[in-house]
Amino acid sequence: MTGLNRTGPAFTWGHAAIETEFATAADGTLRLVRLGPSGDTADPEAALPLVELTAFGHGSGWSGPRFTGTAFGATLAYRGHRRDSGGGWERLTIELHDAETGLTALVELSSPTGVAVLRSLVRLRNDGTESLVVQSVSSLLLGGLPSPDVLDVHRARNDWLAECRWYAEPLRATVADISVDVHQHDSRAALSLTGRGSWPSDGHLAMGALTERGGVRDGGGDGNGDGDGDGSEDPGRVRGRGRAWVWQVESPAGWRWDLGERAHGTYLALNGPTDAEHQWRVRLAPGEEFTTVPAALAVGAAAGAGAGHGSGLDAALGALTAYRRAVRRPHPDHEVLPVIFNDYMNTLMGDPTTAKLLPLIDAAADAGAEYFCIDSGWYDDSVDGGWWDSVGEWLPSARRFPDGGAGGGRGASTGAGQDARSEAGTRTGDSGERGGSEAVVRVGEGRGSASGEGALSDGGIRGVLGRIRERGMVPGLWLEPEVVGVRSPVAAELPPEAFFQRDGVRLTEQGRHQLDLRHPAARAHLDKTVDRLVGDWGVGYLKLDYNIVIDPGTTAPGDLSPGAGLLGHAHAYLGWLSDVLDRYPHLVVENCASGGMRMDGATLAVSQLQSTSDQQDPLRYPPIAASAPTAVPPEQGAVWAYPQPEHDDDLITFTLGGALLGRIHLSGHLDRMTPRQLGLVRDAVDTYKSIRGDLAHADPFWPLGLPGWTDEWLALGLRAPERHGPSYVSVWRRGGEAEVRLPVPHLAGRDTPVRTEILHPSAARTSAATTTTVWDPSSGELRVSVPRAPGVVLIRLTPDARAAA
């Protein structure tokens, strides 16, 4: 490693938002002793080594469930470090070396300038003469945190149809006080959490948080208590008024984190997959390298009224949001935030045909949609809908789209090929008060009207895609690229090595095989598919779904373990997706896995949107929508809004209002609505378009704390980065009293008034105009009255200096 600073094993590094300090412990290992403001420096003996890893012949120094106290942790000696900066990032690389084995560990730390987040990964290199089989290696370690006595730990249950359900409990509920001074030994207990298989966020998000007690407990809100997230042992909703630490493990496959007591303090260890829990291990021959998955840790502290932030937890989640924006792949969609209509949810439900789609396309265009995505089923030629185990060719159904044939019908008019590469997403227009980029489609320009009852200039699916373009929208299609049904011709056409296998046997899950994207034949098959859909047909939006889970993985030739094979495929899949976006830079990709089962940091850094749920009940969706910004920036979080003609006005505005602080994903039988009902939809879409320029850069906050699954009142806020910029608050009422008070600390204590505006529902369109809002400047609280349940209101709060401008 060239350019190393070898002046001494004690130094600081960072920037104004976050600073780290390193010092040497008695055993000679370098340790991170401070992450945050000066004065918080930990004793080096309470801190952890920079890297902990286990390998065959090199295990732990003690028995227990932790992945700390390893033999290598105590022998990897400091060699030097190198600083670097550029592109809005600060970087530090620390080199460690074990003289006995020749193993070198490069700890690569980075942080976006001005953002209180530390990112870490470890690169191992075998500089010795013998092979080494690694069984676990940390991505980020931090010791010297406050005692478990004063900490609450937060986790997020993440299940199909019930995503992002945060709950909290005292760390002492798991890591008991064993009287360490009496035993002269730390507890062996650890609170650990793991994600397994090819759905990395199935069960829990790959996240966690600690908050330092000494703040505010709301007391009683459910969903923040026991390990099931149902609130049955709720210690009171912790709003984290003290310091907070929030982390994510950016693994597209297995991961683990654990917390425990060390030297009267608390440690945090973040890992990717391990041998013990994920059947992951890799062999490093001399000269070979392995790089861990990254992990990120955000820090936040409560600030006084008017200082810019409220709770420490909100501050840390805001920093993590800024980090996610900095680390992801740049794309025009992140600024434009076009409105997407998808035909699936509570509408066609995987049964699209030309006859069903044409009136929906017209209605979606009339409502203001800018993209129209045809969801699953467009390839199904069976009469019974039994396509599940026959997918893989991704050719259009001639039965569903007559005159199409396998090629998709006669060539579509303008919009195919280069149009998908260069036109979609580049225009400019309305975007709210902040200014910025305009929507992909100019509303009112180029939006043709319906040209006859079902008449198409072209046949087959390409004719339907052409109609979408004629109505001024960008066409999209659903695709499940990684699976091949057992009855699909592709299952026989591709070589056996192109699929997941164990002991030479091809794996089958729910009637499907899993492609291994490390194999060139599997990749070529998907490249051919995407080039046909995007390059030839002019599709500008792909919803990439994934509805099976493989655990623990695959053992293709060269794989030492199935967990290593799974991680290798997952990285190859993201590499393939990145190459697709390189070829078609304005293609918009939505990541979906039965909703939010693949809501991980690695995938979110590549894809433009993230499906937050498959939840079909509009009364169950609010806690998912309100919590989604903990896992994904608001402009990437796709939230369903599926109003129906049989809904009353209150329910129509309720389901629409829940999506206005995320990425609105319209669905529903808009084609069957009355003009009044469609007007309600159009009003909500127009409201969204008027504020989306602010949403793309806003930080989330939660005036009532993170929501519980059955809470009667829920609230999500987004605040623009400028001090005098607007804040937006969505408030849902599902029951309870008709009024609620919402603390908004970052607006409290100002000597200028705050103007409140109800943006949704529109008073001109609904009887819910009796909803009222009152700002109390003395307490910094917003008083909201919603007369009927279910009800929702979107409020804009603007400091007077901004309002006067």
Task: Walk me through the structure.
The protein is built from 16 helices and 40 strands. Among the domains are: 11-140 and 272-300, Beta-galactosidase, Chain A, domain 5, CATH 2.70.98.60; 700-804, Immunoglobulin-like (Sandwich). The chain is an alpha+beta fold. The strands form eight sheets. Strands 5, 6, 7, 8, 10, 11, 13, 14, 15, 19 and 20 form an eleven-stranded antiparallel beta sheet that branches. It has an eight-stranded parallel beta barrel with strand order 21-22-23-28-29-30-31-32. α6 (354-367) packs parallel to α8 (460-470) and α14 runs parallel beside α15. The relative contact order is 0.10. α12 links the parallel β29 (588-591) and β30. The model is unreliable at 215-240, 304-309 and 409-453 (pLDDT under 50).
Keywords:
single chain; 805 residues; alpha+beta; Beta-galactosidase, Chain A, domain 5; Immunoglobulin-like; eleven-stranded antiparallel β-sheet
What's the helix and strand layout?
Blueprint: E1 11-15, E2 18-24, E3 30-35, E4 53-55, E5 77-86, E6 89-97, E7 103-112, E8 117-126, E9 132-145, E10 151-159, E11 162-170, H1 180-183, E12 191-195, E13 203-204, E14 207-212, E15 244-249, E16 255-262, E17 265-271, H2 275-278, E18 282-284, E19 289-291, E20 295-300, H3 312-327, H4 333-336, E21 340-342, H5 344-348, H6 354-367, E22 371-374, H7 418-422, H8 460-470, E23 474-479, E24 483-485, H9 490-493, E25 501-502, E26 505-506, E27 512-514, H10 520-536, E28 541-544, H11 562-583, E29 588-591, H12 601-604, E30 609-611, H13 622-627, E31 637-641, H14 649-657, E32 663-666, H15 675-695, E33 699-701, E34 713-719, E35 727-733, E36 739-743, E37 754-760, E38 772-776, E39 781-785, E40 791-799, H16 800-804
Parallel strand pairs: 21-22, 21-32, 22-23, 23-28, 28-29, 29-30, 30-31, 31-32
Antiparallel strand pairs: 1-2, 2-3, 4-9, 5-6, 6-7, 7-8, 8-19, 8-20, 9-17, 9-18, 10-11, 10-13, 10-14, 12-16, 14-15, 15-20, 16-17, 24-27, 25-26, 33-34, 34-35, 35-40, 36-39, 37-40, 38-39
Helix pairs in contact: 6-8, 14-15
